[in-house]
Protein: Zinc-binding alcohol dehydrogenase family protein
Amino acid sequence: MTYINEALWLPKRGGDLAVGSSTYTAPKQGEVVVRTRAVAVNFIDAMPGFAYRFVLPWLSFPAVIGSDVAGEVVEVGAGVTRLQVGDRVVAHAAGTEKSRNTSAEGAFQDYVVLMAHMVAPLPDSLPFKQAAVLPLAMSTASCGLFQKDQLALALPTANPADRNETVLVWGGSTSVGVNAIQLARNAGYRVVATSSPKHFDWLRSLGASVVIDRTSSDVVDELVAAIGHQPLAGVLAIGSGSLPPTIEIAARLPGSKRVSTTNPSPITSVRARLARRRGVTVSTIWGGTLKDNEVGPAIYCDFLPAALASGAYRAEPVATVVGDGLASIPAALDRLREGISATKLVVRL
Ligand SMILES: NC(=O)c1ccc[n+]([C@@H]2O[C@H](COP(=O)([O-])OP(=O)(O)OC[C@H]3O[C@@H](n4cnc5c(N)ncnc54)[C@H](OP(=O)(O)O)[C@@H]3O)[C@@H](O)[C@H]2O)c1
Structure:
């Protein structure tokens, strides 16, 4: 089987993205090919050329970047039984990951090769454009919450028992945060979050018990008081500046002393060393690591399909469609660089 493929190529570090033809790559063992119908854009797709040296130093060029895909399965590789041709799916594309490093697996193309265990079937009621908001944000939250080297929480299930422990999600209104809130709730934890006040109701509707203004001058004391009556299960620190207050909170409260951050900075290792003296362990998240451990299949195969179908999990935040066709993606990246709030930018293909 073969199809005519087009991709948005990044010719070199710091080069200009351009649409061009690409070969169709058939799926190998454990893979599927999806006809992409919607992609979302993330900060890593919008980073400046020089940052590739530090963030994706292994990446081969020309490259096809992009992580968030929704579309239809068109070909299934050997050994894949849970997905069929024609299935509507959402998936985390792994082409820029060090262990994959292949343009065939980048999201920004018409036909993308995907690891089958990072693909989840969609209910008919969920449009591709809205499903596309999920993958990298949900994967990043899942790595932080569930991996053994991060917060090591219990995995989400259909009918979770109440655990009487609290997860703190700092940066609850980010795309990563709204996934973290829902994942932690579906694993039976109470969730306390931070955001700006305009997002409080939204985060409560997703399962947060208490939401505190992250810019409040008393934010640490307010969070300690809100969490106080239950032990901490762990802290997810999302967004710049999230590490100092969350380390302080973990040091002061009973329970887990683990803080998992999405935003390593040049001084993260210094902060982590100082935190260790107070009994707090800081770890940094790379949102693609779940593809190589039990968390990836637990989320994409075991949890998400049924949770989306039952309504126990919502594809949030709301998608803003900013264009159609691969050629619209560079403008979507420009818009992302200007900053977004409570939305994810999506391009339909
Ligand atoms: N390590 C990884 O693998 C990985 C993967 C994906 C993303 N990330 C990082 O995770 C962060 C979130 O990404 P995203 O795509 O989920 O974000 P996003 O959806 O673009 O988040 C937008 C929201 O962030 C909130 N915000 C702004 N500044 C903040 C700050 N300093 N602290 C906390 N919240 C802040 C704002 O809401 P309020 O006004 O309500 O606070 C805004 O609505 C980014 O820094 C991103 O680089 C890391």
About this structure: The mean pLDDT is 97. The first helix runs from residue 52 to 55. The two ends are 21 Å apart (CA to CA). The domain at 5-134+315-348 is CATH 3.90.180.10 (Quinone Oxidoreductase; Chain A, domain 1).
